[in-house]
Design goal:
The chain contains 11 helices and 13 strands. By secondary structure, the protein is an alpha/beta fold.
Length: 262
């Protein structure tokens, strides 16, 4: 434990030295990064002027400030944004989960934030489903709405690989589509991020028509994925990692999450 504490102290000391010279580093290394972003309130979304706002925006911009980097943002749907990372058309995308497939196209940053996922139900069904986890759901005839390619938890990934969820899954186009299908009775529930779902349901004016199932779904960690094809200087990624670690240590990450994004 003492050894780990010493390593962390040394790491944070190095971070402070890097941040103190951030402007010079940016000038020396021409640290200008292009980030793809997707419309996913409250993490990433357009403000009144069309420019990106949200939690992920604020986390990235603070990390970039500490790392001495300039950031520009390019809007794209999630599949297109990941393709742009793969092809090197952008340098990075923020707020993505870790998968072995994405390791092939990018380099993951230090942990950026954590997000809790939930199962959304119609309010009248609140006392109908008594399973305590996704394995119990998989053993029932429950019609579960999911977005193709989304990874909601480690248990979900395991059940997906084993085929145990095959009879339950109903593919939806996104959260608004899933909400409409739920309220029309075409699915029994859907998986979504807690913050994302809560914001969307309020915006759609249907928050009083749904509830979140009490079962615990493993939280997913979100990262920045830096493009391998873009040929980013590894030193820049190191500076971002130091920044993200320091932000978690000094409470900045929690503060930005609590504020919900500018």
């Amino acid at each position: 434990m003492r050894l780990l504490s010493g390593i962390l102290t040394s790491w944070l000391l190095m971070a402070s030295l890097v941040f103190a010279s951030g402007i010079a580093l940016a000038a020396d290394n021409h640290c200008a990064l292009r980030f793809a972003w997707v419309d996913l309130p409250p993490y990433q979304f357009p403000g009144p002027d069309g420019a990106i706002k949200g939690i992920d925006h604020d986390l990235v911009m603070e990390a970039a400030r500490r790392a001495g980097c300039m950031v520009t943002w390019i809007s794209a749907p999630r599949p297109r944004a990941l393709m742009m990372v793969q092809e090197g058309q952008v340098d990075a995308i923020a707020g993505v989960a870790h998968t072995p497939e994405r390791e092939k196209i990018g380099i993951y940053s230090h942990f950026m934030r954590q997000g809790r996922n939930v199962l959304v139900l119609r309010r009248e069904d609140a006392g109908r489903y008594f399973f305590s986890d996704l394995a119990g759901l998989a053993a029932s005839p429950f019609r579960l709405g999911v977005v193709s390619g989304s990874l909601y938890s480690s248990e979900y990934e395991r059940l997906l690989r084993s085929g145990d969820l095959a009879d339950n899954l109903v593919i939806v186009n996104g959260g608004e589509s899933a909400t409409a299908m739920l309220l029309r009775g075409r699915i029994d529930g859907f998986l979504d991020g807690y913050r994302v779902a809560a914001e969307r349901l309020e915006r759609m004016g249907v928050r009083d028509q749904v509830v979140f199932h009490p079962m615990k779904i493993t939280s997913k960690e979100a990262f920045i994925l830096f493009s391998r094809a873009a040929g980013i200087d590894p030193a820049i990624i190191d500076r971002f990692n130091l920044a993200l670690a320091a932000m978690q240590e000094d409470g900045t990450t929690v503060r930005i999450l609590d504020l919900g994004g500018s």
